[in-house]
Amino acid sequence: MSVRSDKQQTRRRTPRLLLRYLAAGLLLVLASVGSTLWLAQTAEYRFDQQSSDAALARNEQILDELSLWAGRHPTWDGVGPELLELAHDTGRRIALVGGDGELIADSAPTLPRPEESTMTFDPLEEYAEPGTLELRLHRGIVGPFGLSEDQRTALTARAADVRACLGTAVIGSTVWTTGRPVVWATDNAPDCGRTRLDTPLPSEQDALDELRELTNRCLLDASAPPIDRVDLDLSAASARAELAFRIDPPGSEITAGCLLSAQAEQASAVTAPTVQIVLTNLRGNVRGPFDASPGTIARIAIVVVVLLALLAAAAAIILAPTLRSARKLEDAADRFAAGERAGRSGVGATDDLAHVGAAFDRMSAEIAGHETARRRLLGDVAHELRSPLTNIRGWVEAADDGLGMSDAELRSLVLTEAGRMETITRDLQLLALAETGDLAVDLAPVDAAEVVRSVVAAHLVRAAAADVTLAADVEGPLPMRTDAARLGQILSNLVGNALRHTAAGGSVRVGAGATGGTVRFEVTDDGEGIAADDLPFVFDRLWRGDPARTRSGESSGLGLSIVQGLSQALGGSVEVTSEVGVGSRFTVLLPGWPD
């Protein structure tokens, strides 16, 4: 009943997924087409982009360049190449028309000139400086203050000498649009020729005198006090990057206004006159190919229908295989939840969701392996603990029945078996900590050679009792950074394992050496060896290749698992090579002394 219900739910989910896909696609199509319709109905398609930020920025660039050109030329004759270069750089169509309506220059003379894109351009028009709102002329309007090429060359060389003399005392420098270089220095800096550099040239002084006269004429008309001097403002306090003046005595707003109007009057003689300027896009505002006519709307409606049909076909092509793969994965998950750990998804490598199916299969196989290992571990632990518990119970019952065992003998046997159980539980706890990464290690400078010798010395008595030769094969100090106690435990477990599996008359050797940044420890014996089929399992918990060859009570079956866990906790690894009847070699690789 439950399986049938799950299948019914799967069949109900399939059309819902299809409907959601179609609904999402329909919403996307309608939103796209609706936006297109809205634009078609509301846009004028005049190609006049002066209202956009990008077009405004390009227009400002054009007006700035034309103002610079106008400040250097008294007429607009010869401006054609400048217009062509600006049109190429900005992507705008530029045309200049004189006051009489005659075309002066045009970057696209074959296109019509729309009236709505025509505006008046006066190079001498005042503008408010951003931030201070101070009225100024454009920086390109220099009037008679413009310097000749020879004057510029001479002042430039003089400014270079001043900067070289001042060195680190220079706080800034610039070149005015008039061609004059300006250098600013700290207050306590030496003169270094700055006085000579800042002295106006004769042509500049003449222009300053003329500017003073024009300003005073304006002030006289305004019934304001006249000024005595007009100088170039070259001070560091001003730090102007363009032509600036300083008047003496400082005046009021009326004085500043008269100075500005005098500057415009003075520059008018050498500045190009006011013109009409046309700024459009490169097409000249020709009407675009789109409109909001009924025919266009009908064509868009047809496109909507076609898109919806294609969307439905795409849903059938794309979703059907995907849904089949999804149903396989869902069935596999249901079987897995019911306890079938070895179940597979059934999704092929060429199916949709193949990667998901492969991941599910890997997960299922890994969990099944963990489940098998867990059951085996529980069985092994139960077996290991059952034996000493059975022995203890048997001895206690025998003592109760008075079967000839002294109290001292009973205590000795019970303590031996209790110690065996304690060893098993302690080793299991150590393995659990190592596998979870919670094992505490105390890294410190260690002489690995000394650790090897200590481990060998600790096992000499046991080796002598077993008639096995035990020797350390290490020379000189072997510095490394590790946990000496954990390293000793690793080597002790390997030596103990080698002694258990080496017959009388055999030998066990413990060697160590450094290669690059790695320290290599080897425990080699000529004992009974390990079969090739058993090598992959030697580090498993409670595993014994041949229980008959393990001396009862001498091993918990966890020694090699502990070796692997401790090696990994110290940042290394352990390997084994062996041959039956020849012997075994266990190799531990640990990080050496860091650079």
Automatic annotation (TrEMBL):
<feature type="domain" description="HAMP">
    <location>
        <begin position="320"/>
        <end position="372"/>
    </location>
</feature>
<feature type="domain" description="Histidine kinase">
    <location>
        <begin position="380"/>
        <end position="594"/>
    </location>
</feature>
<keyword id="KW-0902">Two-component regulatory system</keyword>
<dbReference type="Pfam" id="PF02518">
    <property type="entry name" value="HATPase_c"/>
</dbReference>
<dbReference type="InterPro" id="IPR003594">
    <property type="entry name" value="HATPase_dom"/>
</dbReference>
<keyword id="KW-1133">Transmembrane helix</keyword>
<dbReference type="InterPro" id="IPR050736">
    <property type="entry name" value="Sensor_HK_Regulatory"/>
</dbReference>
<keyword id="KW-0418">Kinase</keyword>
<dbReference type="Pfam" id="PF00512">
    <property type="entry name" value="HisKA"/>
</dbReference>
<dbReference type="InterPro" id="IPR036097">
    <property type="entry name" value="HisK_dim/P_sf"/>
</dbReference>
<dbReference type="InterPro" id="IPR036890">
    <property type="entry name" value="HATPase_C_sf"/>
</dbReference>
<dbReference type="InterPro" id="IPR005467">
    <property type="entry name" value="His_kinase_dom"/>
</dbReference>
<dbReference type="InterPro" id="IPR003661">
    <property type="entry name" value="HisK_dim/P_dom"/>
</dbReference>
<keyword id="KW-0812">Transmembrane</keyword>
<keyword id="KW-0472">Membrane</keyword>
<keyword id="KW-0597">Phosphoprotein</keyword>
<dbReference type="InterPro" id="IPR003660">
    <property type="entry name" value="HAMP_dom"/>
</dbReference>
<dbReference type="GO" id="GO:0016301">
    <property type="term" value="F:kinase activity"/>
</dbReference>
<protein>
    <recommendedName>
        <fullName>histidine kinase</fullName>
        <ecNumber>2.7.13.3</ecNumber>
    </recommendedName>
</protein>
<keyword id="KW-0808">Transferase</keyword>
<feature type="transmembrane region" description="Helical">
    <location>
        <begin position="297"/>
        <end position="320"/>
    </location>
</feature>
<feature type="transmembrane region" description="Helical">
    <location>
        <begin position="21"/>
        <end position="40"/>
    </location>
</feature>
<dbReference type="InterPro" id="IPR004358">
    <property type="entry name" value="Sig_transdc_His_kin-like_C"/>
</dbReference>
